[in-house]
Design goal:
20% strand; alpha/beta; 5-stranded mixed sheet; Nucleotidyltransferase, domain 5; 41% helix
């Protein structure tokens, strides 16, 4: 299920920063006010990846998933966005949870900037980048006045 309106407005949400090698994971507070970076998961195969997602959604009693959608500056979707949508739909089915896709433009760049400003070493920056990017995407969703807005289409 991938209808933005289907994600509950109360309860813990997990933010996922999709990557072909790693998935950054963030978690919200149950009242959906604050997102925190959780961890980076190195992808293995569909079976192990599904088991990981089920474990973490159960552990945090998640009620929905927010998946970052890498749209172009124009708001159009390309190959990576299609991959993220396929992943998000798969993850939602694997966990039995609703999924919302959220614009992730600049999330990795902003995460890198935050880590630099926090004077995190380059080596540690790389190991933290994906989960901080997931946090930024999830926080942007939590802070949005219109959680039903289509990813990539900013309101005028």
């Amino acid at each position: 299920m991938t209808d933005n309106a289907s994600v509950p407005t109360r309860g813990t949400l997990l933010g996922l920063d999709y990557g072909t090698k790693r998935i950054g994971v963030a978690v919200s507070t149950p009242d959906q006010s604050i997102a925190s970076p959780l961890e980076n998961y190195t992808r293995r195969n569909a079976t192990l990846d599904a088991a990981y997602l089920k474990k973490i959604t159960t552990e945090y009693q998640a009620v929905g998933l927010v998946v970052g959608l890498p749209v172009h500056m124009s708001g159009d979707e390309g190959t990576k966005a299609r991959e993220a949508r396929t992943f998000g739909e798969w993850a939602g089915n694997a966990c039995g949870l609703p999924v919302v896709f959220w614009d992730e433009r600049y999330s990795s760049a902003m995460a890198g900037l935050y880590l630099q400003q926090a004077e995190v070493s380059r080596k540690k920056q790389k190991s933290r980048l994906d989960k901080v990017a997931a946090q930024l995407v999830l926080q942007a969703f939590l802070d949005s006045d219109d959680r039903t807005a289509a990813p990539g289409r900013w309101p005028n």
